[in-house]
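ugh ok fine here u go
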Amino acid sequence: MKRRKRVLIISDLHCGHHVGLTHPGFDPDERPKRQPKLYDMRRTVWNWFADTTDQLGKIDILVVNGDCIDGKGEASGSTELLYSDRADQVELAVAAIKHIGAGKILMSYGTPYHVGKEDDWEDLIAREVNAEKIGGEDTVDVNGLLINYRHHVGRSTIPHGRHTAVAKEVLWNSLWAERGEYPKASVLIRSHVHYFNYCGSVDWLAMTTPALMGYGGKYGTRKMSGTVDIGMVVFNVAKSGEYSWKPVLLRLPLVSPISL
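structure:
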């Protein structure tokens, strides 16, 4: 018998980065004198993540949509890493995913820069958490609702352009379906860009998911323009396939201007 199912979408944990999702068991016990704000950010994001997932209750299906670890950090000479050993980063990601206690877990591969150009480190995470599957792009059937998910999607540097990349993905999905080679999804999930955005119509919904990485990366603060989001997305799917959904976002305190 079908019953209502709850689906949680998380992505971009970037475990190992100094503002990546960090289980407190892997973090220093005391606030360090050097870079204390990064320590505070890690604790804030983890505490919010742990409290929120506990409050959500039973998760039937967890989709972990890529970039579980931060990788070698070549672009910054590894100066942004809390843990440089990717085996340690894998342990952090496993601890975070297991905290949710989901009934079934699905995963997608993140970007090679983060999760391995030669080896897919997320394969090890998938084995450790007993994931049902990890792949490049997949579609899951939840009570008749088809949800397509993949990590990578194009980025926009203008607010009104953020819809375009995921809308394009919907069109490609429809064209594959017209050829009879791929299922046509009603919901399309992409990640990678670290901002939450969505668009849709009568019979489809597409979105980019927020990240589970805090603020404080050199790339973001020094080079990028635009808002980013911390959070996750939850779906409740009825027996009929009808669904409701909502983003669950963390908003941080106002950054005070410099006072001279």
